[in-house]
Design brief:
The complex is a heterodimer. Chain A is α+β, with helices and mostly antiparallel strands. Chain A is built from 6 helices and 7 strands, in the order βαααβββαβαββα. Chain A is globular, with a radius of gyration of 16 Å. The chains are: A alpha+beta, B alpha+beta.
């Protein structure tokens, strides 16, 4: 196993609160990015208040909580962030959330690559049994990406999003360890 | 609906730090007890220090990798000992340690009852894949008890402890979830 954190396009790297808080502030200026990612109303935060939040809330990695920067392999550019939080130890289930803040990397397979790396880490290193995520009804690009990574639709909470004068559903998707093992993923065991 | 915290002879509870510290201050002067449960040298801690340590344990009562119970008898509600579980969450393995500080409850099945209750909790509630423990070579009563619960002797580290001028081994035992599921839980005897 050469590097469990490297995919074909991206790698997961340790997150640096200083760098990340500045990136967050910049990415959140893009209301389209926020629309796809955030349940709460769009707002802007300073890099300084992001840093405070990161140092207090995000904290150290622990068996239950993982937070990574997403960097391109080619230029080592910081393009996004990813978090994995174990929801239940007896159930060995974790919730994943990711965002690609650099919009020129949308629709190019980067998100799917990140998710493939994450799932390998989750199933082969943390020994989880399932991974869960939520995605907004109006984000078909992400839904397709997660389907490609092996996630299945499990349910939806109806009309919970209230944006731009319309109500939308939040979709829940999940993938089980045995389903992931049955997929034909290139770097499994490689 | 079975009460997870109730066995046949004992039940698990959470003691207030003060009565717990009072009992432990007495038990720590029972050197035979100390040597059976611990590898550390016999030490004396003040009741105040023990109480503070217990309060700290109770404070961080939500860590998913540590569980601590006090043990009381069902018959008389007497506080007789304690049991702790340390979980390696990534590998789904738990280490258990227990002690019965009240000597008149030794050799009467109390330890076995405590361990059976613990295994039920570890496997059906925490859902770990295995439970491990270590014990001293010179504690055959515990070895027999753990065997009755389904633990298998897996190895020994030779002469890694020294007491009264003599070296002794530490024994290591384990039980897998599938082995526990296969036990006749009423009898609990494994080949």
């Amino acid at each position: 196993m050469k590097d469990i954190f490297a995919g074909k396009l991206v790698r997961l790297s340790a997150f640096d609160p200083e760098e990340m808080s500045k990136a967050f502030a910049r990415w959140n200026l893009n209301s389209e990015y926020q629309r796809l990612l955030n349940l709460s109303p769009h707002r802007m935060q300073s890099a300084k208040s992001n840093l405070k939040w990161m140092e207090e809330e995000v904290g150290e990695m622990s068996p239950a909580s993982y937070f990574f920067s997403i960097r391109t392999l080619v230029e080592d550019k910081l393009i996004g962030e990813l978090g994995l939080d174990v929801v239940s130890w007896p159930g060995r289930d974790a919730f994943v959330g990711l965002g690609i803040g650099e919009t020129e990397y949308w629709s190019k397979g980067y998100g799917t690559d990140v998710m493939n790396v994450l799932l390998h880490f989750a199933f082969a290193e943390i020994n989880l049994r399932r991974v869960t995520l939520s995605v907004f009804e109006y984000n078909p690009r992400a839904i397709r990406s997660y389907e490609k990574a092996g996630f299945r639709h499990e349910g939806r909470t109806r009309k919970v999003l209230n944006k731009e004068g319309q109500r939308w559903d939040v979709l829940y998707m999940g993938i089980l360890r045995e389903e992931w093992m049955g997929l034909d993923i290139p770097f499994q065991g490689g | 609906m079975k009460d997870l915290f109730r066995g046949e002879l004992v039940r698990f509870t959470l003691e207030e730090p003060e009565p717990s510290a009072k009992a432990q201050v007495c038990w720590q002067r029972d050197t035979e007890f100390h040597r059976l449960i611990d590898g550390d040298p016999a030490l004396l801690n003040s009741e105040k220090k023990i109480k503070e340590w217990i309060e700290k344990q109770v404070e961080t009562g939500f860590e998913p990798d540590r569980y601590y119970f006090s043990v009381r008898t069902l018959a008389e509600e007497k506080y007789i000992g304690f049991l702790g579980l340390w979980v390696d969450l990534i590998h789904s393995e738990a280490w258990v340690g227990l002690g019965i500080g009240e000597r008149e409850f030794w050799s009467k099945g109390y330890g076995t009852d405590m361990m059976k209750l613990c295994l039920q909790y570890a496997f059906s509630e925490l859902c770990v894949a295995r439970v491990s423990l270590g014990l001293h070579e010179y504690n055959p009563r515990a070895l027999r008890s753990y065997e009755k619960c389904g633990f298998r002797l897996e190895g020994r580290t030779r002469k890694d402890g020294m007491r009264e001028g003599k070296r002794h081994d530490t024994l290591w035992m384990g039980i897998l979830r599938e082995e526990w599921l296969g036990l006749d839980k009423g009898v609990g005897v494994v080949e």
